[in-house]
Amino acid sequence: MSITDGITVFRHMIKLVGVKKKLGGQPVLQGVDLTIPSGKLTTIIGRSGEGKSVLLKHMIGLLQPDEGGVWVDGTDIARLRGHALNEVRKRFAMLFQGSALFDSLTVFENIAFPLREKLRMKGAEVTWRVEEKLEQVGLAGMGHKFPAELSGGMRKRAGLARALVMQPEIILFDEPTTGLDPLMAKSIHDLIIGMQRKFGFTAVMVSHEIPEIFGISDYIVMLKRGVIAAMADPLEFKRTMDPEIREFISVGGTVPLAAESFGS
Q1: Regions of the chain with pLDDT less than 70
Q2: Does the model's pTM come out above 0.90?
Q3: Contact 48, 261 (CB under 8 A)
Q4: Are 24 and 262 in contact (CB under 8 A)?
Q5: Buried b (16+ CB within 10 A) or exposed e, 46-65
Q6: What separation in angstroms does the CA of 212 have from each of 218, 232, 252?
Q7: How far, in Å, CA of 139 to CA of 14, rounded?
Q8: 48, 110, 112, 148, 181 from 158: Cα distances, Å
Q9: Is 26 exposed, middle or buried (0-12, 13-18, 19+ CB in 10 A)?
Q10: Is the CB of residue 70 less than 8 Å from the CB of residue 77?
């Protein structure tokens, strides 16, 4: 029995069926079948260049598959365009590697931006929502600062606050601890899992932080050669007999691809 077989029953939020994608004429995703459970934290691992970030972008519709379907709570977003796709995206937030903060805006203005632009909120309601999120991520009183005045860890916290402020059902995390020292990385992981447990959103995270992710994830997914090689809860995942997967997790996820990289 493969370790993927151990997961059979859960309400899914995101489901990819037969997803294929080429970039630069080279195959990256080669028939991905993956079900993301609702209200859980699922972490995607794999060697550099396997297409983990590409997979994440398909989930939110930033990339469209060449073949296959991407279902979000029963809707195939691979077939949507324009307004219809944007309506589905309102259920998402995404925390990028570099936090993607606007350098010319204060932390407060960065977090308020989606409220004002997408929800057309104004005045006291914006202030209350932003200050609430700043407090929740440990940045109370820091709203007046600009991103350049913050440490790397504080910028990650500000990015998380902006992701949370729209109260999304789904948050995608693309290498959220990149560039941080181990202690700061742990604090960001603890914050993410704390927020996920508190608010119950569906979380999907791409990460190289092995073995740390085994302590915070509900499920681990291994992307290998363009397909899902394994999916299981952390304990079952570590019991795999697949020699490549065992080697990968034993060396901390640093095994590189020999081929040209098309995205982490």
Answers
A1: 1-11, 252-264
A2: no
A3: yes
A4: yes
A5: bbebbbbbbbbbbbbbebbb
A6: 13, 16, 9
A7: 31
A8: 27, 8, 11, 12, 17
A9: exposed
A10: yes
